[in-house]
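Notes to self after the call with IL:
- keep both proteins in one doc
- input above output, always
- annotate only the second one for now

Protein 1:
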Amino acid sequence: MDYFVDKQLFQEIEMLHERICQALGDPKRLMILYLLNQHQRSVGELAQELDTPQPTISHHLKILRERHLVRTHKDGTTVYYALADTRVIQAIDVLRDVLRDSLAAQARLAEFHALDAEQKHTE
């Protein structure tokens, strides 16, 4: 039974990496998701807000759309993009918290070593 659980976990992790993690592996795509979390936008609006060429934004949106992280709807000739599931932002926010905590711990450790070195130098 344990083998089945481990195999299932492994398969889910592989799928998570392929479908979600790779899509989140670019800072521009993360920023697109955060902007779409505020409200829907067109490719042109995203390109302007991110100061990035429209073809580059279109490429990133294609990846996010293929992974079902964004959804689209048309209004006349304009295609608007929206976040498909707000939980992805919650997950990214958790990872940002982990990063902040890690950086704070690293800074405390560096400060401790600096104080320790200073104390040994004054002895």
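Protein 2 (the one to annotate):
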Amino acid sequence: MLQLICHNLTLGYDGQSVLQGLSFTVSAGDYVCVVGENGSGKTTLMKAILGLLPPMKGTIAFGEGLSHNQIGYLPQQTLAQKDFPASVWEIVLSGFQSRRGFRPFYTAEEKEKARSVMERLGIQGFEKRCYRDLSGGQQQRVLLSRALCAAEKVLLLDEPVTGLDPVVTAELYELISDLNHKDGVTIIMISHDVSVAMQQASHILHIGEKIFFGRREDYLKTNGAFKAEGGERA
């Protein structure tokens, strides 16, 4: 069943487009890797899907009862964010804020879900620890827990392994794959590494001068056409 339908999108800022003529669909359970050269509009697309940036042209529609507040988002971290002096529990619970509205407190059900998500991601017992004292990999697990508390069905991930060492990178990719295959979460992930996309994703969205959307195996057949424009790096 379709969860996201993007049709003939033009996206940009201040009247200047960075991405034109983009159409693709995402179905429940898909794992879509978004690749392309730097400046091609990958993060801009994420912002548009989240409703933070209106399209200059075209439409973004949701199916299966999906709405903006049912999408979890893991953005790229800044240095300031890595030094954020909050507890792990505060950060994970903040994933419920968009649905909490004007309620002053989190519900027992929300707290139970937060604990369940933290256990699922291997950070149970971290509740009282300060976020800035964690390793890079632990911080990403905390932020992924927060995104899962916000998400009902879909996760958007913007280069989630940036700055992590190879071992932690492999662990995080495995965790994301498990969320997709075992938990049925739809993944839309910007990746700087096409080789990882080839191993993990069910579909590839390549944006830039050339646009491709389709199954991983079909992208493999045409990938030579994209390497020439720097398709190996996002």
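Annotation: The radius of gyration is 18 Å. The beta strands are 2-13, 16-27, 31-35, 57-62, 71-74, 154-158, 186-190, 203-206, 212-215.
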